[in-house]
Amino acid sequence: MSRTIHFISGLPRSGSTLLAALLKQNPRFHAGMSGPMGGLFSTMLAEMSHRNEMAVFISDEQRKRLLHGLFDNYYGPETDAEVIFDTNRSWTTRLPAIKTLMPNSKVIACVRDVQWIIDSVERLVRKNAFSPSSIFNYNPGGTVYTRANGLAGSDGMVGYAYDALKEAFYGPEADRLMLVQYDSLVKEPGLTLAAIYAFIGEPTFKHDFDNVEYDAREFDLRTGTPGLHDIKRRVAHEPRESVLPPDLFRRFENDSFWKQAENNPRGVRVV
Q1: Confidence (pTM)
Q2: How far is Cα 120 from Cα 123, in angstroms, rounded to an integer?
Q3: Are the C-beta atoms of 37 and 86 separated by less than 8 Å?
Q4: Element (H, E) at 40
Q5: Helix, strand, coil percent content, the chain, rounded in steps of 5
Q6: pLDDT tens digits for the chain (271 residues)?
Q7: At the N or C end, where does the chain have fewer CB atoms within 10 A?
Q8: Which residues pair with 84 in a beta bridge?
């Protein structure tokens, strides 16, 4: 593939859809919401492992070609962009493979204070009171506490992504990782995009922060979570009060490890 591939990953409800909507304004770029490539990548890795007795016929070089071929074929002639951003929360667990397969690729991880991520999901639950969400396996029961515990667990939507982010942040491939804070993206979108362009080595582009478009309504309806990928037309910071009980909000207040310089031994770029 002659095109350049970069990756968007990080925490849920942290601006990845907004970032993709902005990036795709550039006619040289292709970007979108979380897609199937992360799952396809993992499935192919598993099927080529030695749990499959036929794996004896597959060399590591063949594995690399097959995995690289996933991107070649998925983003085939239907996508004519020169630069592709593939979005999936699992990419922060794949930095060693990405480094080998695509040495020039970078991973942009969107992050946000965890208490506000939990708050954002809870707002969706309350907004869609008559539509149980796939986030909770369509279970209409539980309380705000059980929902928060489920989200934050190691296999929950937030907990998995959080652990994967820390794996990348503290791993030896951290030089190809950039963290983009949600507040930076909505308060200073121009400066944030400029930092991203510099990180990936691309010439800057004049984005329109007053007319941002992205439509994932059909997908969101299928997941029982209308509004999951909605973005405002104008990029702006909108302060609000949390809907979480105060003790639950405080539980996650110290989880933003990327904000303390002493917690960043590898010098990961944080915007």
Answers
A1: 0.92
A2: 5
A3: yes
A4: helix 37-47
A5: 50, 10, 40
A6: 578 999 999 999 999 999 999 999 999 999 998 899 999 999 999 999 988 888 888 899 999 999 999 998 999 888 889 999 999 999 999 999 999 999 999 999 999 999 999 999 999 999 988 888 888 888 888 899 999 999 999 999 999 999 999 999 999 999 999 999 999 999 999 999 999 999 999 999 999 999 999 888 888 788 888 888 888 889 999 899 999 999 999 999 999 999 998 999 999 999 9
A7: N
A8: 5, 30
- Rounded to a whole number, what is the largest CA-CA distance in the chain? 58
Question: Would you call 3 helix, strand, or coil by DSSP?
Answer: coil
Q: E strand or H helix at 144, and its extent?
A: helix 144-152
- Residues 202, 207, 213, CA angle at the centre, nearest 5°? 120
Parent domain of 163:
4-270
Counting the structural domains of the chain, the total is 1
Whole-Å CA distances, 192 to 33, 245, 265, 269: 19, 32, 23, 12
Distance of alpha carbon 133 from alpha carbon 110, whole angstroms = 23
CA atoms within 13 A on the CB side of 24: 21
- Residue 119 structure tokens: 């708050």
- Beta pairing, strands 83-87 & 107-111: unpaired
* 30: helix, strand or coil: strand
Query: Residue 69 is part of a domain; what is its CATH number?
Result: 3.40.50.300
- Burial (Cβ within 10 Å: 0-12, 13-18, ≥19) of residue 154: exposed
Estimate to the nearest angstrom the gap between the alpha carbon of 215 and the chain centroid. 17
